[in-house]
Amino acid sequence: RFQTGVDIPVARGFGFHVLDQGATYFPRRHEEVLVWKNSNECADNQEHFDALLERSIERARSESGAAPNLRFVHLRPLRAMGDSSYKTISSFRAVILVPYEVLLMTFYELYHV
Fold first, then answer.
1. In 21, 29, 32, 49, which residue has its Cα 20 to 30 A from 83's Cα atom?
2. Whole-angstrom Cα distance, residue 57 to residue 70?
3. CB 61: neighbour CB atoms within 10 A?
4. What is residue 40's predicted lDDT score, i.e. its pLDDT?
5. CA 32 – CA 72 distance, rounded (Å)
6. Distance from C-alpha of 17 to C-alpha of 111, rounded to nearest angstrom
7. Distance between CA 14 and CA 109 in Å, rounded?
8. Angstrom distance (rounded) from CA 100 to CA 95
9. Alpha-carbon gap, residue 111 to 65, rounded angstroms
10. pLDDT digit string (tens) for 67-102?
11. Which residue has the higher pLDDT, 2 or 49?
12. Alpha carbon of 91 to those of 6, 23, 107, 108: distances in Å?
């Protein structure tokens, strides 16, 4: 409205459907981090992306002397196994969201877990 003078009603994504599924953040996979790239997962660069993640952990380990042993799990295999519910997703230590437009809604969904 500040640039156009027009008020446009909007509704922010909240993720009520996540709450309805009973999902709550309760990490049981303490050494696993879920990598959520986008709905297509961009398999063409996954090898390079995985190498970048591993180098980041190695660098943190060498600089601090104590970095956790983390294993990065991609969303695609979870979906292929039919195990990508919000309950499963919220069991990971953390989720890495690689920014794409669709992921904005995913952020709200995971935030409300």
1. 49
2. 8
3. 13
4. 59
5. 6
6. 13
7. 7
8. 15
9. 31
10. 778 899 988 889 899 988 888 999 999 998 876 656
11. 49
12. 43, 9, 16, 17
Residues in the chain: 113
Does an H or E element contain 77, and which? helix 75-80
Amino acid at 93: R
C-alpha 99 chain-centroid distance: 10
3-state secondary structure (DSSP) of residue 13 = coil
What is the distance between the alpha carbons of residues 46 and 37, in angstroms, rounded to a whole number? Answer: 9
Give the strand pairing for 92-97 and 29-36: parallel
CA 84 vs. chain centroid, Å, equals: 12
**pLDDT (tens digit per residue) in 14-58:** 677 777 887 888 899 999 999 887 655 566 778 888 898 889 888
At residue 32, φ and ψ (nearest 5 deg) are -120, 135
Torsion sign across C-alpha atoms 8, 12, 13, 14: negative
